[in-house]
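[STRUCTURE TOKENS]
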Amino acid sequence: MAETQKSNGLRSLIAHQRWTVLLCVVTFLILMDGFQRQVSGLDQITLIAMSILFLGVVGATERRTWLRAVMVVPVAIWFVLVLLNEMSPSPLLDICLFLDSGILLFGCMIIGFRQLFAPVESEYERLASGVFSYLLMAVIWGLIYWRIEAMHPGSFNLPDDVSESPRGAFMYFSMITMTTVGYGEITPAADLPRTLTGLQAVAGTMFVAIFIGRSVGRLK
């Protein structure tokens, strides 16, 4: 009986704090990229965390909506690709996983952003969904930068201690670009990266303005 109550209590906690849980998963993914060189099997851990993230966002989406129905398809494709890649890894499967993850991450960001305007059970959850979307935006741009450098080496000026284009370095670059900090250790060296970093800085600034404006408006 006690175990049943604990189980129901955990389900209730997750149901009422789902965006907080998803925010923790995104934060974990970002932190893991910082240990890419130190932790063995990090790619498998990342795949598991991303799978949890995608399932969690679909579960957090309002039922019987077109957005939830659309998200189910790439999520199903994601798990099929992960299974195939584990059985027989190939460069083609890696590319398909990257493209599908990009679609899913973008969809997750849109769903999280919609919570700023949708009815929620608590304003705290609205805040968590906003921060979730903001961090996810940084992840998406970081993955794009990482892939650009992998396909066209020299697209970015990288420090000497950054080797083989690790994702962690581009996650860091993405976050400081979006927050317009710009320390300067990593800089774009080609036209496409320059354009993308400019767009990210604008998008990040606009997101913060909308987020703050919406949050303040809800408090009035």
User: Anything to note?
Assistant: The domain at 17-219 is CATH 1.10.287.70 (Helix Hairpins). The longest strand covers residues 156-157. Residues 123-151 form the longest helix (29 residues). The chain has one domain: 17-219.
